[in-house]
Amino acid sequence: MKKLMMSAATVVLAAGCGESDPAGTNPSPPPPPPTLGTPPGDVGFNIIDDAFVDDQGRRNDEASVTVTASQMVGWLHEGANVHTVSFTSVPAGAIANDSGNMDNGATFVQTLATPGTYVFRCDTHPTTMLDATIIVN
């Protein structure tokens, strides 16, 4: 009788040690997002596969930084796709140069001297990566 009770307890314990979800209905959580590098300049944006990302983690049309006149704004490309930084709106009298095509690892820096709002997008993804802003005080 002792032998039978010990075997039954062993079976119950072994059953409890198995996979809690053998059917796979509760998949593992996704990995955390990658840590982004630091863009060049005083403030900046990271460029990932589908977004401009500011230092607060806001993306595309929600991404925005505020600088004082003549501070440097930088971009660091960390995605696989080719992207551009192309200004669609600048304050009257301001000069802002576009980046041209940027590959992974490329950087781009602008010193913006004229106060106002600068709006930019990616020319290769103009419907998804658009309306990020830089506010120059």
Give an overview in words.
Helices cover 11% and strands 28% of the residues. It is mainly beta. The chain has one domain (37-136): Cupredoxins -  blue copper proteins (Immunoglobulin-like, Sandwich). It is elongated. Residues 4-19 have low confidence and may be disordered.
Provide the CATH superfamily. Answer: Cupredoxins -  blue copper proteins
What is the number of strand segments? 8
Low-confidence residue ranges: 4-19
Question: What is the mean pLDDT?
Answer: 84
Rg over CA atoms, rounded to whole Å, is: 25 Å
What's the end-to-end separation, in Å?
86 Å
As for the CATH topology, it is Immunoglobulin-like
CATH hierarchy class name: Mainly Beta
Helix content: 10-25%
Tally of distinct domains: 1
Pattern of helices and strands? HEEEEEEEE
List keywords for this structure.
single chain, elongated, Immunoglobulin-like, 4-stranded mixed β-sheet, mainly beta, 137 residues, 8 strands
Give the helix/strand layout:
Layout: H1 2-16, E1 43-48, E2 51-53, E3 64-67, E4 72-77, E5 86-89, E6 107-111, E7 116-121, E8 132-136
Parallel strand pairs: 1-4, 3-8
Antiparallel strand pairs: 1-2, 4-6, 5-7, 7-8
In short:
This protein is mainly β and 137 residues long.
